[in-house]
């Protein structure tokens, strides 16, 4: 007597659409420029010295990179100093932000997600993938939730085989 078993892939039949936030990750080198190296005695920025540095520094090394500008020292740094750096970096860098590497990633994800057309997910049952090879900031999940809630039939977090419900439209 032969027993035949059919294996049914319930996940494939569920109609769930998986969205991986990592697809919004822009490729490219990230650089953090720490202004602490420009401080006088590690405490404050001297305008004359800083302007000389800005004038002489090779800004082309930031060509095609994503740059975060910060100061990791507890120091007095006027806003104009960051403005000068942004001005010099802008012609070369793909993006310049004020903050650390985490802020840079947040800005990059938010900008990429803002370009997404949510209509492609209208009335879909969506699973926002929760893990992968690319570290995704929590801010990206928040942005995706804000963008997709108005159009999705349901929104879940995790993997299709194990999800956490976030939102379900009341029909």
Structural overview:
This is DUF2480 family protein. The chain has 171 residues and is an alpha/beta fold. It has 2 domains: 10-26 and 115-168, no CATH class; 30-93, no CATH class. It is built from 5 helices and 7 strands; from the N terminus they run αββαβαβαβαββ. Helix 2 (47-56) runs parallel beside helix 3 and helix 4 (101-114) runs parallel beside helix 5 (138-148). The longest helix has 14 residues, at 101-114. The model is unreliable at 7-13 (pLDDT under 50).
Assembly state = single chain
Taking the alpha carbons of the first and last residues, their distance comes to 49 Å
What is the molecular shape? elongated
Strand tally: 7
Summed up, the helix count is 5
**What is the makeup of the main sheet?**
4 strands, mixed
Relative strand content: 15-25%
């Amino acid at each position: 007597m032969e027993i035949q078993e059919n294996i049914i892939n319930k996940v494939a039949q569920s109609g769930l659409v998986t969205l991986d936030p990592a697809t919004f990750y822009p490729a490219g080198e990230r650089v953090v420029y720490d202004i602490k190296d420009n401080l006088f005695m590690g405490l404050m920025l001297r305008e004359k010295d800083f302007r000389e540095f800005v004038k002489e520094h090779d800004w082309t090394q930031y060509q095609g990179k994503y740059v975060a500008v910060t100061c990791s020292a507890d120091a007095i740094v006027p806003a104009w100093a960051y403005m000068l750096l942004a001005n010099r970096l802008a012609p070369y860098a793909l993006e310049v932000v004020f903050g650390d590497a985490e802020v840079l990633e947040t800005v990059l994800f938010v900008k990429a997600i803002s370009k997404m057309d949510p209509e492609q997910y209208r009335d879909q049952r969506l699973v926002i993938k929760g893990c992968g090879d690319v570290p995704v900031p929590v801010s990206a999940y928040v942005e995706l939730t804000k963008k997709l809630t108005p159009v999705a039939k349901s929104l879940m977090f995790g993997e299709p085989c194990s999800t956490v419900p976030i939102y379900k439209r009341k029909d």
